[in-house]
């Protein structure tokens, strides 16, 4: 029960975060240039993602569970630690908070400056490719998380429902607001997703490598809060560093590129 | 950059991310877990221990680099 709830929460939150980012890119392409081309890009991106999920999803269910958990646990742990590191740095003020309004302004300026051009049936190639890349690149990570969580829990349908629910919620909110969803607590959600990916990566990776958890699945009830507590301790430690005189002047430092 | 190298660069960035040491640490921890699981010693603690080591190390590396950049920027501001 706990695993199903955690599966839904992790996939839903990860999907909301990535969908909000994709929405910002699509909005910039549509409002500044050509909505029809931007929407064609979205539809094409969704089709590509659907094909990837349709091919990879059934293939994952054919892999023996221990091997799947070893590989997927390892990958989730690598993803999770990196998500968590960025979330910790944002929470500590050492990395700029993800700001959809600022990203929208940047994308808008770039879109307005780009030359117009028609290719085939697409009236504005720039809008099309911007939307297409936004959807595919943001969606790929979500597809990976949804598929691997679903396959490991042997419940791909629940993961798919969580992912589709998140996309639907963000799409409806985007249509209603017609602006970047800057009020979504994206940074807090990324923190939670980082904790979930790390915890499940540890749990499945260890099981896949042959370890036996004390108390079995119930170990997750300890792992998730323990990872959260550890991350909060790291945030508190880093805030002390950020509070030092030099750091206070540069709270918007972006030390490195961030794949969401 | 050729299409093939761009393809591999994309997947490297997607899977390994911006700190390859995290990936190496995780793979090493999985190998140790597997090794221990073939003995009578419990192996479940290896990956949590790896997180306790790898995450602060990765944070320390990035914050140290950010600190170096900030100091350089501060020096540059003072000299101009």
Summarize this structure briefly:
The complex is a heterodimer of chains A (260) and B (80). With 260 residues, chain A is mainly alpha-helical.
Q: Average pLDDT value of chain B?
A: 84
Q: Runs of chain B with pLDDT <50, length 5+?
A: none
> How many structural domains can be distinguished in the coordinates of chain A?
1
Proportion of residues in β-strands of chain A: under 5%
Question: How many E strands of chain A?
Answer: 0
Distance between the termini of chain B: 37 Å
The SSE string of chain B, one letter per element, is: HHH
Q: What can be said about the biggest beta sheet of chain A? A: none
How would you classify the helix and strand content of chain A by structural class? mainly alpha
Report helical residue fraction of chain B.
Answer: over 70%
Per DSSP E runs of 2 or more residues, the count of β-strands of chain B stands at 0
Which two chains have the most extensive interface, and how many residues on each? Answer: A-B, 47 and 42 residues
Whole-number radius of gyration of chain B? 19 Å
Structural class of chain B: mainly alpha
Q: Using the CA coordinates, give the radius of gyration of chain A.
A: 20 Å
Global outline of chain A: globular
Which regions of chain A have little confidence, pLDDT < 50, spanning 5+ residues? 247-260
Please tell me the total number of domains of chain B. 1
Report on the structure:
The complex is a heterodimer of chains A (260) and B (80). Chain A starts with a helix and ends in a 12-residue tail after the last helix. Chain A has 260 residues and is mostly helical. In chain A, α3 packs across α5 and α5 packs antiparallel against α6 (156-177). Chain A is built from nine helices and no strands. Chain B has helices at 3-15, 20-37, 46-79. Chain B is flat, with a radius of gyration of 19 Å. Chain B contains three helices and no strands. Chain B has 80 residues and is mostly helical. Chain B is 81% helix and 0% strand. Chain A binds chain B through residues 70, 73-75, 77-79, 81-82, 84-85, 88-89, 94-95, 140-141, 198, 201-202, 205-206, 208-214, 219, 223, 226-227, 230-231, 234, 238, 241, 246-247, 249-250, 253, 255-257, 259, and chain B through 13-19, 22-23, 26-27, 29-31, 33-34, 36-38, 42-44, 46-48, 51-52, 54-56, 58-59, 62-63, 65-67, 69-71, 73-74.
């Amino acid at each position: 029960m706990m695993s199903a709830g955690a599966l839904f929460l992790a996939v839903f939150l990860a999907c909301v975060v990535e969908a909000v980012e994709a929405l910002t890119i699509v909005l910039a392409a549509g409002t500044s240039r050509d909505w029809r081309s931007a929407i064609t890009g979205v539809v094409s991106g969704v089709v590509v993602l659907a094909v990837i999920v349709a091919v990879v999803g059934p293939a994952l269910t054919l892999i023996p569970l221990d091997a799947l958990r070893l590989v997927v646990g390892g990958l989730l742990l690598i993803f999770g630690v990196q998500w968590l590191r960025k979330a910790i740095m944002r929470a500590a003020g050492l990395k700029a908070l993800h700001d959809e309004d600022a990203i929208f302004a940047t994308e808008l300026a770039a879109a307005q400056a780009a030359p117009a051009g028609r290719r085939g049936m697409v009236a504005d190639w720039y809008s099309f490719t911007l939307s297409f890349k936004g959807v595919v690149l943001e969606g790929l990570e979500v597809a990976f998380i949804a598929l691997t969580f679903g396959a490991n829990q042997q419940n791909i349908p629940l993961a798919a429902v969580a992912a589709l629910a998140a996309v639907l919620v963000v799409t409806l909110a985007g249509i209603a607001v017609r602006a970047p969803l800057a009020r979504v607590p994206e940074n807090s959600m990324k923190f939670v997703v980082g904790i979930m990916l790390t915890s499940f990566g540890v749990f499945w990776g260890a099981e896949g490598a042959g370890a036996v958890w004390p108390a079995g699945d119930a170990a997750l009830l300890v792992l998730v809060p323990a990872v959260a507590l550890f991350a909060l301790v790291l945030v508190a430690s880093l805030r002390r560093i950020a509070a030092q005189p030099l750091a206070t002047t540069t709270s918007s430092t972006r030390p490195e590129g961030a794949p969401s | 950059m050729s299409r093939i190298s761009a393809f591999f660069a994309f997947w490297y960035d997607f899977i390994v991310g911006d700190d390859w040491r995290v990936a190496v640490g995780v793979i090493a921890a999985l190998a140790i877990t597997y090794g221990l699981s073939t003995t009578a010693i419990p192996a479940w603690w290896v990956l949590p221990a790896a997180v306790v080591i790898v995450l602060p190390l990765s944070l320390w590396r990035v914050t140290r680099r950010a600190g170096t950049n900030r100091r350089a920027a501060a020096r540059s501001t003072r000299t101009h």
